Amino acid sequence: SLCIFLEKNDKKTFLRRFAGIPYVLVEDRSEDGEGSSVITDNYGGMYRVAEHLVRDHGCRSLTYLAGPKGNTDADERLSAVWDVMKKYMLPFTEENIRYGDYSTSVETQAEELFAHFPTMDGMLCANDMMASTVSKVCERHGRTVGKDIAVTGFDDDSQLAPYMEPPLTTVRQNAYSMGMMALHKAVALCRGEKPEPALDEARLVVRASC
What we know:
- By secondary structure, this protein is α/β, with parallel strands linked by helices.
- It is built from 6 helices and 9 strands; from the N terminus they run αββαβαβαβαββαββ.
- The strands form 3 sheets. It has a 4-stranded parallel β-sheet with strand order 4-3-5-6, with helices on both faces. It has a 3-stranded parallel β-sheet with strand order 1-2-8, covered by helices on one side.
- Helix 3 links the parallel strand 3 and strand 4.
């Protein structure tokens, strides 16, 4: 199963249709112990990029454009942002967060964050597509990304992140590595081996947007 399930209920409904069949989830977690899973280190990756803005760039007024509530990736990334803000004792509440759907259709959410935090020095985004929209909204507000405000993403979309203006600081998911790991997990299940989870490294990629 190549995910991503936007909500955990979607995953449960899907898996019930194939009850009793061994499975491997890619980009999600198996919660019933009957299947294997391969997922990016969402928490670790987002923690690194959030801490990078705070520790290395001195950002003190941050907002977060999160993924959809109840989504595994989104929940793990949001948890990391909360933990970094707590570690550095920065002002951060639910008002600092808006929720998108991982698409580019997040202008409303970005504008709401600007309305509440017009002088913010950084906006973290849960993926690159939403970050691309945020960059355009920043321009409309007269804020130069990489100078007046830091913008970051997650995924390192090879068709998007390196070619944005400026190129996007983000977190790299290694699709090749996850595909290979998933294939090994599938073969293991065919051999009757016990289902197991796998966590793939998520690496910080620093570019000019911060």
